[in-house]
Design goal:
It is a single chain. This protein is an alpha/beta fold and about 325 residues long. It contains twelve helices and 14 strands. It has a single domain, classed as UDP-N-acetylmuramoyl-L-alanine:D-glutamate ligase (3-Layer(aba) Sandwich), CATH 3.40.1190. The strands form two sheets. The chain has a nine-stranded mixed beta sheet with strand order 6-5-1-9-10-11-12-13-14, with helices on both faces. The protein has a five-stranded mixed beta sheet with strand order 3-8-7-2-4. It is globular, with a radius of gyration of 18 Å.
């Protein structure tokens, strides 16, 4: 570990992503609900993995994808997440470091194996995720490195991890360390599934511990149990210092008190795979934020990085995002 400052430290599920392209019939055959994320056990994970064709395997998880995007944008970043001391754990560690993120969380020596997410992508670019959380959910407060948190301008928390009590304690510990060192805390609500399961505790977390919130339209309306997006905006502006809300082809809305910025979606050539779009939007936004850009500029960067990732299969950028953003902003 170095003593140099970091822009962002990302905290989340350490998952190896396996992505394959398939047909709607395969989704139906396995009884999946298209376009959703389902949690599966170890036995289901092994059976589905064996039935899948060869695909792309990479270190993943929502926060891991954001860390990869940040690194591609030139940010100094780190990742905190739990793996097992097994083959997939080694794959995850080597891959996340290879993209440019620090990763020093000790691997578990017992318990469940390293997590994996089996992602089936249909021709319409919808992704159906089957996740075995394995060792990742055993992240606990003891894994939160105060020195690492203190070095980072922003600590970014992945909502998918907000389930077990140990993980909640880890989030609170990370937020406490960040604010004790005059740093900021960011949270992604991750998925309506997560919000529905943890609505009340998410509200408390957002209200009392979060400075920068990321959510899409479905997540923010679910959080406040309203049908209208504008009504949700009125609620969240009272709870959080900065909120960045994505609305797919409608672009994004950023709210900070009485300040509101509406940003169009960035141009893209095709929607091939929406996996990682929200993760890369967060990466772009946080890159701008940690560089000191104003709140009107940050979502423009996020829109560009999100547009890049939906143009190909996989949740990670396939070009140098720093160069892409510089070129697009210069247009």
């Amino acid at each position: 570990m170095t003593d140099s400052l970091l822009d962002v430290v990302c905290v989340g599920n350490a998952i190896v992503d396996v992505l394959v392209q398939t047909e709607d019939a395969v989704i139906a055959e396995h009884g999946m609900v298209k376009g959703t994320m389902a949690l599966i056990d170890a036995e289901q994970a092994e059976a589905l993995y064996a039935a899948m064709p060869q695909g792309i395997e990479t270190s993943g998880g929502s926060a891991g994808n954001t860390a990869a995007g940040l690194a591609s944008l030139g940010a100094r970043c780190a990742f905190i997440g739990k793996v097992r001391d097994d083959q997939l754990g080694n794959v995850f560690a080597q891959d996340i470091r290879a993209v440019g993120a620090e990763f020093t969380t000790p691997a578990a020596t017992d318990g469940p194996p390293t997590a994996r997410c089996l992602i089936l992508i249909t021709p319409d670019a919808e992704r159906t995720m089957n996740t075995f959380l394995g060792a990742s959910v055993n992240l606990g407060p003891e894994d939160i490195d105060e020195e690492l948190i203190a070095r980072a301008q922003v600590t970014y928390l992945e909502g998918y991890l907000w389930d077990r009590e140990a993980a909640k304690a880890a989030f609170h510990r990370a937020a406490g360390f960040a604010h004790a060192h005059d740093r900021m805390v960011s949270l992604s609500l991750s998925d309506p599934f997560c919000v529905d399961r943890h609505r009340e505790s998410f509200r408390e977390l957002v209200r009392d511990h979060v400075d920068i919130l990321f959510a899409n339209e479905d997540e923010i309306t679910s959080l406040y149990e309203v049908d209208d997006f504008d009504a949700a905006v009125q609620h969240v502006r009272l709870d959080c210092r900065v909120t960045a809300l994505t609305r797919s082809e409608k672009g994004a809305v950023v709210v900070s008190g009485d300040e509101v910025h509406i940003v169009d979606a960035a141009p893209f050539s095709a929607i091939v795979d929406t996996t990682g779009a929200g993760d890369q939007f967060a990466a772009g936004f946080l890159r701008g934020f940690t560089l000191g850009d104003d709140l009107a500029a940050c979502p423009r960067i996020g829109a560009i990085t999100a547009a890049e990732v939906i143009d190909h299969v996989g949740p990670r950028p396939q070009v140098n995002l720093a160069e892409l953003v510089a070129a697009r902003l210069a247009d």
